[in-house]
Write a structure and sequence with these properties.
This protein has three domains: about 120 residues, Butyryl-Coa Dehydrogenase, subunit A, domain 1; about 100 residues, Butyryl-CoA Dehydrogenase, subunit A, domain 2 (Beta Barrel), CATH 2.40.110.10; about 150 residues, Butyryl-CoA Dehydrogenase, subunit A, domain 3. The chain has twelve helices and eleven strands. Helix 9 runs antiparallel to helix 10. The longest helix has about 35 residues. The termini are far apart. The model has no long low-confidence stretch (mean pLDDT about 95).
Length: about 400
Amino acid sequence: MAPQQPFALFDIDHQLSPEEIAVRDTVRRFVADRIRPDIAEWFETGTLPARELAREMGAMGLLGMHLDGYGCAGMSAVDYGLACLELEAGDSGIRSLVSVTGSLAMFAIHAFGSEEQKNEWLPPLARGEMLGCFGLTEADFGSDPAGMRTSAKQDGDDWILDGSKMWITNGNVADVAVVWARTDDGIRGFVVPLDTAGVTVNEIHHKMSLRASVTSELVFDSVRLPATAMLPGVRGLKGPLSCLNEARFGIVFGTLGAARDCVETTLDYALAREQFGRPIAAFQLTQRKLAEMTVGLGNGMLLALHLGRLKDAGIVRPEQVSVGKMNNARTALDIARECRSILGANGVTLEYPVIRHMNNLESVFTYEGTNEMHTLVVGQALTGIPAYR
């Protein structure tokens, strides 16, 4: 038998429409031409031409691609998921650049903003002329956002914003942030141009993961905002949590891109690498690893597509997205670690993408809800009992 690629074993293409395959293949070509040649160097040096890439991806319609109107492409959830998969097959940092702008910043404005806010911000963000970020997490409040200390107080018709946000993807390259703060009227969202007086953005260095991605701290020192900066359409944690659910959906697909790239790389390596006079792919232990990884990858893809179809039908529930994020992030990280072992010493170099994906997936395993928090979401769905405290 001729060797098969992992998704071919599951005949995944049979589950996709011609239009979905066209979206997938377009993004795959972009990643092959624009990301793969340089991503190892960007990762090693901790750099990324984020604005240049944003303009190119904006021209392709990838930014806010699942939103309707205001210059957005209005594509399906499955289209968006497949794009995330291909982007993360290039690198998790590239998918994060797209998902933070589209599924967090743009989605918040699209879902909860005024018409003026939508018309002002969404078209340039969709074109990649601007970049967005999303300020919810604080240094002392990650999984418990209700404890946030960032506050906004009214001063006449204006708002005065004070506090800080941590682990903010795109922070130092973004033009605008959607920031969530405590007010006398509950938690509210604010659209904050990052060139506003009193805003300081500090880039976070010395990362061993998501190195080809900008991560920052946002600090707000008596930042004066007009009344029109507040998102009028939502109050309370429902706002930021619904945005996070959008981003998590992209991760359900995206993690599989990193895992697929690891498995394909490792399969090719195992067929070419010889020890004891035969390819290491011929040994039973290696074949067991390859088989188990491929089954986990394929099952994750079928789950992602199922959730995508539910989302396109408008009936997906948050706890179902948690199932997808929990399963696929964990599966992808396990696959990357196993692939690293098959590559041996070669697995720790950037000549191969595996350890880069493995390090990135350590962050993806944690952000947009840790594995533990998604486990408790699923546990509550099954028992009806919240176990967070």
